[in-house]
Design a protein that fits this description.
heterodimer; A: 106 residues; two-stranded antiparallel sheet; 2 strands; B: 241 residues; mainly alpha; 2 domains
Chain lengths: 106, 241
């Protein structure tokens, strides 16, 4: 019962965070600087999720920015494809194929 | 071009989410298996996916429950891990402000990293997105459904996809595809670079504070770069109307 209450509280709080500006506080009430800064959430969060997932490899995960890091090589190949083709499935396909190929060859 | 219909926007949202499901499905199974192994009942493990609906925070909560950490600490930790959703809520708010309240309550429930990234990319296409909320709904609901089903699979069957397939790699790969159109100018590139740097440095910081700090650092860096160039038009997303 105690665990259910903990999960319920965490869930309500998380929902409150998601509702915050979409429902509770109108975005026009945010300071001008904050609204300007929000334009950069997307590029910031995307690379902040990409880089650790690519640069921390192995088990246990350790920082590796060298050419021996298969994820890094595969991600760079995928980035080139993303840039040229602007297609999500091609990007994923090329990245996964490159990763599996490097594993297989290595 | 006439505006897309509700139905086609919804389906486009599902399609935009589909590549992310490749990575989410094994993640959901891993969570479900881990939660049960941590001593949660199968009902609670499953309920957490519906009530909290945030993968990283659910894993952390399971670990803390297994360690018998005080409830208040668990709740605060979950909220800290999920605090970045406030940024998503704020960034999406101008696009949903015209909707009825019940729509906004529904979409907020479905707000995740993945639903945010795909939906904001849709809104930024600049064609008005009259039925953009149907895209948001399709994207969010696709992820939600996959998350519930994969959790159940993990809870009752275990993590069946071998780690060696590296399907988790589908997440950064999809985000690479989404990052390209988001790099709209020098300030956006600076924002991404600063956030990436902080995220790498903060990889071992506890409770998701690395990602949260990275997002904030990126926003500040983007803002500074924007002010330095003095060219508003080269910023990230179009300023709120």
């Amino acid at each position: 019962m105690r665990l259910w209450l903990i999960v319920a509280a965490a869930g309500i709080g998380t929902y409150g965070i998601r509702l915050s500006v979409m429902v509770f506080v109108h975005h026009s009430l945010l300071p001008r600087t904050a609204r300007d800064a929000l334009r950069f959430v997307t590029p910031a969060v995307l690379l902040a999720i990409i880089l650790p997932a690519v640069l921390y490899a192995g088990d246990p995960a350790a920082f590796d920015a060298g050419p021996g890091n298969e994820r890094l090589v595969a991600a760079l190949a995928a980035a080139a494809v993303a840039w040229a083709a602007k297609n999500t499935w091609l990007t994923i396909g090329s990245g996964m194929a490159m990763l599996w190929l490097l594993r297989w060859a290595g | 071009m006439p505006p897309l219909s509700r139905r086609s926007e919804f389906l486009a949202g599902v399609r935009a989410q589909a590549p992310l499901l490749l990575g989410v499905t094994p993640f959901g199974m891993a969570y479900g298996a881990y939660a049960v192994k941590s001593g949660l009942s199968s009902g609670l493990a499953q309920a957490m996916s519906a009530i909290i609906f945030g993968g990283a925070s659910q894993l952390v909560a399971s670990r803390l429950i297994a360690q018998s950490v005080p409830g208040a600490v668990i709740v605060l930790t979950v909220l800290l891990v999920n605090l970045r959703h406030m940024l998503y809520s704020a960034a999406l708010a101008p696009h949903v402000e015209h909707l009825e309240r019940r729509w906004r309550w529904l979409l907020a429930y479905l707000l995740t990293d993945e639903a945010y990234a795909t939906s904001i990319t849709r809104y930024r296409r600049g064609d008005g997105a009259v039925y953009g909320h149907w895209f948001f709904l399709g994207s969010g609901l696709a992820l939600w459904t996959a998350w519930q089903i994969s959790t159940a699979a993990g809870v009752f069957v275990g993590a069946a996809v071998p780690d060696s397939w590296s399907l988790d790699f589908a997440l950064p790969l999809t985000f690479i595809a989404l990052l390209v159109p988001a790099l709209t100018g020098r300030p956006a590139v600076v924002a991404a670079g600063a956030a990436g740097l902080v995220a790498v440095l903060g990889y071992h910081w506890p409770y998701g504070t690395g990602l949260l700090s990275a997002a904030i650092a990126g926003m500040l860096a983007g803002l500074l770069a924007d002010r330095a160039t003095g060219d508003r038009a080269t910023g990230g997303e179009a300023a709120a109307p």
